[in-house]
Amino acid sequence: MADTPTAQTAGKNGPAAWRNWAGNVTATPTRTVTPASVEELRETVRRAAQDGLRVKAVGTGHSFTAAAATDGVLVRPQALAGIREIDRAAGTVTVAAGTVLKDLNAALAGEGLSLTNMGDIMEQTVSGATSTGTHGTGRDSASISAQIRGLELVTAAGELLTCSEKENPEVFAAARLGIGALGIVTAITFAVEPLFYLTAREEPMGFDRVTAEFDQHFAENEHFEFYWFPHTGNCNTKRNNRSQGPAAPPGPVSAWIEDELLSNGLFQAVNSLGRAVPATIPSIARVASRALSARTYTDIPYKVFTSPRRVRFVEMEYAVPREQLVETLRELRATVDRSRLRISFPVEVRTAPADDITLSTASGRDTAYIAVHMYKGTPYQAYFTAAERIFTAHGGRPHWGKVHTRDAEYFAEAYPRFGEFTALRDRLDPDRVFGNDYLRRVLGD
């Protein structure tokens, strides 16, 4: 597979098949459409409804669930891209839905602007990232969806709905993270701010120390995250805080060693070895967890928040109440230690403040995220099942775009406003034009 986020392969006698970035989800739509305008998209939706076909929009395929899979009409929004408007007085930028985050970040930087927070991968489209709840880590600043100030949505009837806190506010409350269930997003207005500098401090630290001092690290840093390497007591921490600058990025040689040779090239090699010979994984983990050294650097936000991810994997991530993070993580470590599992990927821990988005994983509560990964092609079910059992015991909410087994009954308990979302869906899409098997499971029918 090429180093593109998704792939399509044409069958000899049928339509092209689609698969996601990780390769764990495939679909064969009846037809694939790349609309060149919003009006063309509206007509696509109207025609599909008339033909009795369901419609799903797909970005770059970085979700690990079948949220975008369809046997009907697959809409690829890549032609709907670019910045529509910058309003410096309001502190906003309006961008077409198919814009890739890395292009938005670079364009904003060229205008002396930036998002306040972002995730560590920037290959997704803005609509795909927000619709599934993509997030970074932050003490005070929340997910990308929480930075939305307005959006446009094509409904099942082919109508174009404009939403904000003042216009269609009940739709705005939900559609900032709509899992593709309410319509197809065509444009998003984000809050932005003048470009600033972040100083990143990366430092190895023991598991016991990180967990004992977690509350302190969280309180003292604007953005704190860490990675625990299973089968070891080792972690790598990262603290990002605003600074006056100037930019002092890693040198080209050290950046290549850390970000390409170790984090991608060598990591790819050791994961391939671990997949072939699982018994080697604990030893590899002990070496790998000591390979990354401490470093400090300063740069503009997207060059600090984001990093290349070339090693493919499958991921599960759960959001738990922040005060339950340490207990949850210690239970996960104990489970791994007493099992025969062999885990070659580190466990990622991040945080987010409470927000007011209906189905956000941080809706109404301060949150910590625990993400578990397995190398592509490695059986992951036993590990993810064990982890999910722990996460759900702590009231966890799974990331909408990552592997999980939860259903509508679970979510009705996990989200106080779940009924608000499903009622809105019934109003906007009563015939389930935007439905699929995944949405039937997580939202009910």
Layout of secondary structure:
Layout: E1 7-10, E2 16-19, E3 26-27, E4 31-33, H1 38-50, E5 55-57, E6 73-75, E7 83-87, E8 92-96, H2 101-110, E9 113-114, H3 126-132, E10 148-154, E11 160-163, H4 169-175, E12 184-191, E13 193-194, E14 197-206, H5 207-212, H6 214-220, E15 223-228, E16 234-243, H7 252-276, H8 281-288, E17 295-299, H9 301-305, E18 313-321, H10 325-337, E19 347-352, E20 367-375, H11 381-393, E21 397-398, H12 408-414, H13 418-428, H14 437-443
Could you describe the 3D structure shown?
With 445 residues, this protein is an alpha+beta fold. 31% of the residues lie in helices and 24% in strands. It contains 14 helices and 21 strands. It has helices at 38-50, 101-110, 126-132, 169-175, 207-212, 214-220, 252-276, 281-288, 301-305, 325-337, 381-393, 408-414, 418-428, 437-443; strands spanning 7-10, 16-19, 26-27, 31-33, 55-57, 73-75, 83-87, 92-96, 113-114, 148-154, 160-163, 184-191, 193-194, 197-206, 223-228, 234-243, 295-299, 313-321, 347-352, 367-375, 397-398. The strands form 5 sheets. An 8-stranded antiparallel sheet has the order 17-14-16-15-19-20-18-21. Strands 7-8-12-10-11 form a 5-stranded antiparallel sheet. A hairpin with a 5-residue loop joins β1 and β2 (16-19). The longest helix is centred in the middle third of the chain and has 25 residues, at 252-276. The protein starts with 6 loop residues before the first strand and ends with a helix. The relative contact order is 0.13.
